[in-house]
Design brief:
There is one protein chain. The chain is α/β, with parallel strands linked by helices and 399 residues long. It folds into 2 domains: 215 residues, Glycogen Phosphorylase B (Rossmann fold, 3-Layer(aba) Sandwich); 171 residues, Glycogen Phosphorylase B (Rossmann fold, 3-Layer(aba) Sandwich). Helix content is 45%, strand content 15%. It is built from 18 helices and 13 strands. It has a 7-stranded parallel beta sheet, sandwiched between helices. Strand 8, helix 11 and strand 9 form a beta-alpha-beta unit. The protein is globular and about 65 Å long. The two termini are 20 Å apart.
């Protein structure tokens, strides 16, 4: 894997200047998914002495003397009431304003590199890349085309996204994915730039903020009974996360001790609550809301489930691994890569299969032990220092 980075070292050393400064951007910060990983990258860079220019409409709550925020002020008419639904006018304004700033800043000699954490975040950097010829490094956590298809984004917007993605892919210096399966998808999609694509896995969180006994007490208070067998999932819930299949399965679980704990928020929450009420399992499905430390709740549950229709390298799954909680996941390519084929996977389109596995987990202690061992073994490969690996990559590019 690391050999793929090294082939760029000589080219990059000729292209880069001597100062250490990186430009990155993300329109609206989120504590979930790629927002969490972007924050780690930014803080790893500034703590190592690299200056970061961060362009955003809604910047994160981060602070460091080497971190400089540039806020793109958006006219109120472009912003909808819900922060989860930003209008096309918002995106057009951010694309133009942020892109112009990045292009101007990138032409300064001290700016050495452009960094983005998705194709979408890289779109406004196209102009900066073309005018400055500074390297553009894109970290990719998921198949974004697949995600917008699952969300049923309008076809014209999907076509525009596809066009811009092709432009960014061709102009990028390096694309770094979180999984081998995503890397292979992109190599197949863009064979002409396949040699630009490499892999850096996400890592396990280093600490979970409480012991299992304390976590179990907190979970017992949330679900309302101490003898409950608690299934959990955590996410920013949208259609892609497919949490409805777990609620449908709960309606068929035979053991009345079984409870489902959903940790997180997101646009799908009202629909999920309605589904639980409709299926008469509202008293067995608990919505814990957003938590900055979801793993401290997951640690107190008996099994973590991740039924996503599409993922990159799920932070929620890694947090569950770190909390030493047994896990089941949907049989999408990214999860097959983590677990291999077998008992820890289920069809994300089959509530009956999910129900069967959940019932077996509750009733069969030997089966629980098997899933726990599979989870423990799968977690081992993600125990490394991600921040250090990121800095190794940046050093290859002369930063």
């Amino acid at each position: 894997m690391w050999e793929q980075f090294a082939i760029f070292a000589h080219i990059m050393q000729q292209e880069l200047k001597t100062q250490n400064k990186v430009i990155t951007m993300f329109a609206r910060f989120s504590d979930a998914g790629l927002g969490k990983r972007l924050s780690r990258a930014v803080m790893a860079l500034v703590k190592s002495g690299i200056k970061v220019e961060y362009i955003s409409a809604f910047p994160p709550d981060l602070s460091h003397e080497l971190l400089n925020f540039h806020t793109v002020k958006t006219p109120g008419i472009f912003v909808r009431k819900s922060p989860d639904h930003r209008s096309p006018l918002f995106w057009a304004h951010f694309f133009i304003a942020a892109g112009c700033y990045a292009a101007r800043a990138a032409r300064r000699k001290e700016v050495q590199c452009l960094m983005a954490f998705s194709f979408g975040a890289a779109f406004p950097m196209i102009l900066a890349r073309v005018l400055s010829r500074k390297p553009l490094i894109i970290f990719l956590r998921s198949n974004e085309r697949q995600e917008i298809a699952i969300k049923k984004v309008a076809l014209p917007l999907r076509l525009v996204f596809g066009f811009l993605e092709r432009c960014v892919a061709s102009l990028s210096t390096q694309m770094i994915t979180v999984s081998d399966s995503l890397a292979e998808t992109l190599r197949t999609r863009y064979p002409r730039v396949a040699n630009k694509i490499s892999v850096l896995y996400n890592d396990l969180p280093t600490t979970i903020g409480c012991d299992r006994q304390s976590a179990r007490k907190e979970v017992a208070l949330l679900v309302g009974r101490e003898d409950a067998f608690v299934f959990s999932t955590s996410a920013r819930f949208d259609k892609r996360k497919n949490a409805g299949i777990l609620i449908k399965a709960m309606a068929k679980i035979s053991d009345d001790r079984a409870m489902l704990l959903l940790v997180g928020d997101g646009p799908a929450i009202p629909e999920l609550k309605h589904l639980a009420k409709t299926l008469c399992v509202g008293d067995r499905v608990v919505f814990a809301g957003w938590r900055n430390d979801p793993a401290t709740l997951v640690k107190g549950t008996d099994l973590f489930l991740l039924p996503s229709l599409a993922e990159g390298m799920s932070n929620s799954l890694l947090e569950a691994f770190a909390s030493e909680t047994a896990c089941l996941a949907s049989s999408i390519p990214e999860h097959i890569e983590i677990f291999g084929s077998g008992e820890a996977l289920f069809d994300p389109g089959s509530p009956n299969e999910v129900t069967e596995k959940m019932n077996k987990i509750v009733a069969d202690s030997a089966y629980r032990g098997l899933i726990d061992k599979i989870s423990t073994d799968a977690a081992k490969r993600f125990s490394f220092n991600w921040d250090a690996r990121l800095l190794e990559i940046m050093r290859i590019y002369g930063i």
